[in-house]
Amino acid sequence: MEFRGLLPPGPGGRGTPGTARRGPVARLTRVALANVYRFLLTPRWLGYLALTLVAAAVMVFLGNWQLDRYRGRTEVNERIDAGSTMRPAPLRDALPAPTGGPGTAGPAPADRVTWTKVTATGRYDTANVVLVRGRTADRDVGFEVLTPLVLADGTAVLVDRGWIPPAPGGGATVQPQVPAAPTGEVTVTGRVVASESGGGTVDRRAGKLETRRISIPRLARQLPYPVAGGYVLLDQQTPAADPAFQAVPIGHTNNWQNFGYVVQWWLFAGMSLVGYGWVARREARRMAGLDGPRTPTDRAAEPVSPATT
Q: What is the pLDDT of residue 25?
């Protein structure tokens, strides 16, 4: 004997056992999940939420910081590329004249003019040559040679004349034989470079200044005239530069590494929020008994179809 009347009507008036089984259980599941998510308002889970939001905010901040660095390095690379084809501008268009007394440095060059090409005319001060040790060219360690170019107004700009190896038979810190600078009036063309950051001493040894970093303010203190706040990386010179000098290579900055960090930090921020939601949902299903063994209450909620006799 069939008890069709106990089954809810289906298409054509026939009962659908699947509907009878799913309907009450589905409604019970929705109600159970709606109620069980109240655990998110407990102090512990509110603490988890606050921690997740703080972590995500920090990661977004780090991503934005790397994005700023990516944009800045991209602009530097663009100026390097543009400088190779631009016409040189007068030095004072990029490096304002220093206004202090002897031993002082002028204002640092603006970011927009670094790596642009300039030209200047003056006389080399060969009594104050600067050797910058620990510089590499083609994986060899040597020195960059900076010589002050004294201009007509009595101020000076440091000119990086190029790289030379240390003296033969010595170590990487042995002073090289520096080719003599041209005497008389000299015209130089090169790139504007900002002062390097970091400390380091400036010492005078064997009649030459030695340092590890091209820090214009520190070098200016050793010179008897005001010095421009940036220096010129030599490209061309009249009279011609000594062939013993090797041109200092101009390398592009690695901006794509910063872009990768941007994507990484933003992905981590999104993953932390998604992870919080996933853990909360898993906890809710566990509390509702949906991800574990069914309890007697779950089985009692299912309607039973009488057996056919």
A: 53
